[in-house]
Amino acid sequence: MIGQMPRRSVRRWVYNSAPAPTDSGPPVTSALELLAPARNADIAIEAIRHGADAVYIGGPAFGARHGAGNPVAEIERLAAYARRFHARVFITLNTIFRDDELDDARKLAWQVYEAGADALIVQDMGLLELDLPPIQLHASTQCDIRTPEKARFLADVGFSQMVLARELSLAEIGAIRSRVMRSGIQSDGAGDTAPVLEFFIHGALCVAFSGQCYISHAHTGRSANRGECSQACRLPYNLEDAQGRIVAFDKHLLSMKDNDQSANLRALADAGIRSFKIEGRLKDLAYVKNATAHYRQLIDRILDDTPEYARASSGRCTYTFSPRPEKTFNRGATDYFVNGRQPDIGAFDTPKFAGEASGTVTRLGPDWFEVDSEEEFANGDGISYLSRGRKLAGLRINVAKRVGHGQRLFPNEMPEDPEGFKVGTEILRNRDQAFERLLERDSAERRIDISVELGETADGFRLTLRDEDGISAAAEIAHAREAAKNPPRAFAALAENLGKLGGTDFRTTDVKVVLSEAWFLPASTINALRRDAVEQLIAARAAARPRLPRNPPAEPPATYPERELSYLANVLNSRARDFYRKHGVELIADAYEADTTPGEVSLMITKHCLRYSHSLCPKEAKGWVKGVNAEPMVLVNGKERLTLKFDCKACEMHVMGKAKKSRTIAIKAA
Predict the structure, then answer these.
(1) Could you say which of 146, 158, 195, 396 has the lowest number of CB atoms within 10 Å?
(2) Phi and psi for 531 in degrees, rounded to 5?
(3) Distance linking the first and last C-alpha atoms of the chain
(4) How would you class 130 by CB atoms within 10 Å of its CB: exposed for 0-12, middle for 13-18, buried for 19 or more?
(5) Kind of pairing, strands 564-565 and 587-588?
């Protein structure tokens, strides 16, 4: 509105472009963090631009994704960008280390800290015995955090954040939250010492409990705990019973569908999760943009509806596309064990991206086929289908034409198998060319809301900016006062010019002009004043973002929940041994990667159960099946045979095996 307000002996003109807020709401109690993956700094920056509150990324070495490392200079560039939105950068230092690697790991920790990283994600407890920088420590998924006792121990030794096992249910998450709480609320980065609980909400699922898979090392010498998993879980297997009868033939029996907790976010938050993590440090840019934007919108709805939850970083995002996670790489969707054991969690037909169902074949021509589909296909789309034996096959569409109620598609090459591709075959689209092109371009903006107020000084004018976080800054300019000829028009012009923030990180939501007279101010003067004020606000925001504090370890040192550690504890170096001894462990076995574990052992421990998947679970089965199921089963891939043992009390499956002699000899010789 435009009007006059009395101010003793002078007139005070006020222009306000928006009503003042009526209520700032309840105090901040708990921030919800969206944590996105990044293969490199460019993808990480796009993740932040698309709504991530934090990103996790590998440094030059020692990250549990071989081939996803980044120079320290790139970490510094990323951290500088993240600071603009008070977003955070977490560095994966989550392999297990040999003794000769510990000093390099220590040096790297200092380098990324000095580059601006906010936390280290670690697995190896030997790092806690080193001279690390004062940086937050986050417990990696490789720590296999499934119990309240282990979670509380990690909190007591100084971890500020920990990612819980993907296999947990809502009730189990709630039990962990109750055990780790040190005070009334979880940490929002403002001084509370309770650890933040983190949970994977999207992306690929390791079939094993993380950190408890040694098949890759046993068969190839490439350790999953050292970032070099060979992904034996994605291979095809036969499943045989004890008599050699085939239960399943040539299926990817250890391959899981992809995680999708879209429907469970509020329930996870209520159970105690505060950091919602997207998997995918090896995924491409389109996947990260799409998944991040999808979960940003879902979390924003929770924040809008639930005032007790707060934002973990600054800014609001707008997109040029509608996020659809089913359109980028996935193996189908499951919410895994969050709501209890489910019957259909496996991607047994293929570990590849089959795509979304998009119609059926209705006619076949010499170089074309027609599809009855509501989808609009385009040139360049990728099509897949399950051929004979339910093997995934694919086509690339050169030309797509609308024909009646369907579409005629001309592929780069027609399938040759008349039984595998015929009328009635279901078509899936695993590349939507139009959607991909949207994601190849700039597809999001992130802006921080600010209010703007122009007032007077003794010899000129002051412009004050206040952002959505309550941070303010001001700039002044000396300028002669000249009365405007048309006050209403002058005020409107001032407000319009003040609100033009161009290519900055800010977006004006409220402009107020408070002057004793309607003064004339040239656009150049307003631009200079606005530019200076924005620079001051950027500096103020940087000063208001201190380093995240490290949680101090409890004194006296907390006692580890167990007195003995097997190879499953992944202790590969002397400093890790020192750590566990300090915390009361008496017997400590070598990590499996030390190649001192003899004979057949559990090479994989998983909550996925092939008995259950094939309706052979003794707890679920009836009648004659109960007498058959107590026997071991075998997975067969070529000459490789892996015995399956079932711990029904714990509801776990163990994949048994031993290291190949040729591989062990080769490693020792090297």
Answers:
(1) 396
(2) -60, -45
(3) 79
(4) middle
(5) parallel
SS3 314: coil
**How far apart are the C-alpha atoms of 447 and 429, rounded to whole Å?**
34
Contact 541, 467 (CB under 8 A): yes
Helix, strand, coil shares of the chain as percentages rounded to 5? 30, 30, 45
The rounded distance, in Å, linking the Cα atoms of 422 and 323 is: 33
Residue 638: CB atoms within 10 Å? 9
Q: What sign does the dihedral 57-550-140-344 (CA atoms) show?
A: negative
Instruction: Please name which of 591, 571, 593 lies closest in space to residue 218, comparing C-alpha atoms.
Output: 593
Residue pointed to by tokens 């549990």:
64
Q: Which structure tokens are listed for 139? A: 């417990």
For 470, the token pair is 């309550």
> What kind of fold does domain 30-205+256-307+321-327 have according to CATH?
TIM Barrel (3.20.20)
What's the pLDDT tens digit per position in 562-615?
Answer: 999 999 999 999 999 999 999 999 999 999 999 999 999 999 999 999 999 998
Contact of 302 with 261, CB cutoff 8 Å:
no
Percent of the chain with pLDDT over 70: 91
Q: Token pair for residue 608?
A: 């996925």
CA atoms of 210 and 279, how far apart (whole Å): 13
Listed in order, the ranges of the chain carrying CATH 2.40.10.170 are 354-440
Q: What is the pLDDT of residues 284-302, one digit of tens each?
A: 999 999 999 999 999 999 9
Parallel, antiparallel, or unpaired for β 382-386 and 88-93? unpaired
One-letter-per-residue 3-state SS of 127-142: HHHCCCCCCEEEECHH
